[in-house]
């Protein structure tokens, strides 16, 4: 099985991992949390946690994947045969599947709003129509179900093409496009009248507002944004070649993710303040508030309003797809290995199962909220804790060092290994428990 396992190219694995990390949370959740918990003060803590905590956790999960060269469930069984560790791997897979299901509902909203932007834009006479549209999308009806199915089906088509020709090729094309779009949107947003208030909201440090919960949220935002604990990093890393640098790949992924989050803040908040909207609206801000801005623009310049709307929702859609395909691959990879299924058959099974659960989430907001809560606060936490404890306490130190340093060939990695192992063994487990307990309060 290992001998015939597919591989990413060097650039492909970096872009695929970055695509997994960059998602809808970067666009709406990060800017809101920055403003809520002290502006630049939150950003400073977020950056510190990203490099000191999230990066080692990301590397640890990568080490398991490349060492075992198996899917999440089988990786822990391979490295610790005859032990219960594999069941914790199954918890991570379950979390990834649940997120796959309800995340595709949100992806369907993105697809719907992009289609509306392309076809006719948003009415400048009735800009409040966006709120009405979003209300329909989040209520019972056939339209959100169809959008969910289309979005999920498109992602599964990419998965069927395979690791290199599907995931890798899509990432190589769409990740550069994603950054071009978000940077262009940033410059446009900063040019809007009143944008300075949005910049002040984002960048003014106020340490008095950086509460203990805010500090925990900074760590949680960094942690979840990097897709840690779902088996995504482990699965993608299992497709890495032995010659590839795990530490270097992880650092680049983190840099891309952090950069995108900060740029997204410069896109959303200046536009929100320019329109006089409330920045605390959360996910609905993207689907209600931002279209309001496009409608106002269309009143004076219909072509500009529609063009910017298309660019914005295309950015959201690409970010949603790159994250969704990574979560689907976690489940598909496990089915292929455990049951011996072809990629097409495994993908079809996941498509049907996620379609059903996603429809339930779409039709029942309570189910949607429950899936979001249990996957983020329980499954991901248990998965992340399992991976870090496994690398720090279960795996042989020599094996961990071998993967981290590429058999001693990487001088910088060799010099940093002792510090890395100390963090993984003694600092990460309690940090994850802090996030877990804080989120339960």
Verbal overview:
- 81% of the residues lie in helices and 0% in strands.
- With 441 residues, the protein is mainly α.
- It has one domain: Orthogonal Bundle (Hydantoin permease).
- It is globular.
Strand content: under 5%
**Portion in helices:** over 70%
CATH architecture: Orthogonal Bundle
Q: How many domains comprise the coordinates?
A: 1
Largest sheet: none
Number of helices: 18
How would the global form be characterised? globular
Going by helix content, strand content and strand pairing, the class is: mainly alpha
CA radius of gyration? 21 Å
User: Which sequence of SSEs, written as H and E, runs from N to C?
Assistant: HHHHHHHHHHHHHHHHHH
Query: What's the overall average pLDDT, rounded?
Result: 87
Distance between the termini: 45 Å
CATH superfamily: Hydantoin permease
Report low-confidence residues grouped into runs of 5 or more: none
Instruction: Please write the CATH class name.
Output: Mainly Alpha
Would you give the CATH topology?
Answer: Hydantoin permease
What is shown here, in short?
This protein has 18 helices and no strands.
